[in-house]
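the two lines:
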Amino acid sequence: MESLSLLADGLATAVTPENLMWAAIGVLLGTFVGVLPGIGPAMAVALLLPVTFGLEPTQAFIMFAGIYYGGMYGGSTTSILLNTPGESASVMTALEGNKMAKKGRAAQALATAAIGSFIAGTIGTMLVVFFAPALAGVAVKIGAPSYLAIMLMAMVLVTSVLGSSRLRGFIALFIGLTIGLVGLDMNTGQPRLSFDQPLLADRLDIVVVAVGIFALGEALWVAAHLRRRPLSVIPVGRPWMGRDDWGRSWKPWLRGTALGFPFGAVPAGGAETPTFLSYVLEKRLAKKGHEFGSGAIEGVAGPEAANNASAAGTFVPLLALGLPVTATATIMLAALQGYGIQPGPQLMTEHPDLVWTLLASLLIGNTLLLVLNLPLAPLWAKLLRIPRPYLYAGILFFASLGAYTANQQPFDLFLLLVFGLLGLAMRRFGLPVLPLILGVILGPLMETKMREALAISGGDPAGLVDEPLAVVVYAVIVLLVVVPLVLARVRPRLTPTEAAADAPAPADQSDKESVR
Amino acid sequence: MTTETVLIAYTPDDFGHAALEHGIVEARRRSARIVAVNATRGDALVDERFADDGEVTALERDLAASGIDHEVHRVMAPDVADAVLEAAEKAGATVIVVGLRRRSPVGKLVLGSVAQRVLLGADVPVLAVKPA
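prediction for all of em together
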């Protein structure tokens, strides 16, 4: 129960008026970016990175936590009212949610999404409170070779499990790893991939890379597709639920939470799979099964809860291992590094104040979301009328400002443009952004661990596999890569729907199948 | 065989309905055909002045009920006023019907007005109407 008293300390820190203000700003900003498709919490956090370097790390992370949860919530609003999922995790919400809204039950759909998110987020955060310290306690004893293996596994999982195409995922990952190499080698001081440019040898600033890929890339992509037929938004009043809706919602909320959290907590993160599984599960369990496909409240409640529980779950690997599994968490990790804090298992013991205040502020942010968003839903829907030129002019302004102020180096603006074009090209060719940003940020960390492991063994590559845990993890990686290939050959005609409906069985298996 | 054309700048709201109502009356008086134009800049996710499929069906039904020869155009263009004027020219409109919004002088300064720019830019008479 030590965790609880630490959490109480964290709460005490988090409820100061100033910190509450940062939480409120974060939540509002997060919902804002979540509601607008194309702009997500990852972009928001990246744009805010330069701004937050002037803040205390605790305050910055309180705000980031708010943005993270707010983004989730905002995405569900858009899915329900517009049938345009702002992010992949909201796709399942859109299925039933939009049909509910069309039947005039938008208020109930929004309410079950909001309350379900709150419940799942709260339970999820409490689970993080118990799991993360335990995991970190184990993880500090892990040696460099095993740590390297685990990082590698996270990369392979994120790259091959999420997204539509494995090949595209790995292309993005390797581009990211290459970008991560640019600059001075930390160990030997040799410049790499710097093309004799002293400014490149200085290593790329993560703000410039992230803002270029997320903000500039998206802005260029939108500029290339500026005029699109407007969609019709379903008008909605203040969300509310009747007794019947509560009765039908609470079980899916809890089941969604139970499904979502483990998927977030293993370093294969991402909310796509659990939301999908939750949808399928609710569809099977629903007594009013016939209502599925025409707006069943269970189909909104379950996936939305799974979505938020998995978002909470991603804090387990982030805080306990220093392994981010979502784009937003990756940028948050970069922010940690920006403060000179080394992410990893020692984070919990070296910066307990930061960790526990962050966890406490997740709870507070979640509550604020519920309080703010239920009454504000009609207002959020109005945001969708903002003409894109105004919106992206603002984003470009902050992007350039952020990229420049990071080092006050005009060359960074040129780099920003280069990464913006890269971001545009990635969107054009359907390359996922997450593996790239993971490669940029985790690549150097991974290299450090590898160098460490090799230094211990005196440069003998066998040193990379001399820990049992490392060997096990490498075996898992091989399985992860090989099994789907074999399955694809053996059962070529299995569609994702059938695969997941067949077996909610072992998590890792259904995981891979549902993505194929 | 009619030669005259009444062009209605349609929006799926009170102003558009007023324009439609007066446009139909005007078309009867002149025994003209009707071209209804609904334009959007298409640069926002949601534009409530752009008729969705259901609203266009309703518009078609209203026009068909009037028994007047009619066309409905949905246009996406960088500028809504220009789109209306261009459609008027193309259709050889003899009169343009627009719905006027009540807006304070300050509001007009900030937001501009499609109706105002149609009034200023049109080569043919413009019938500006207000919802009852």
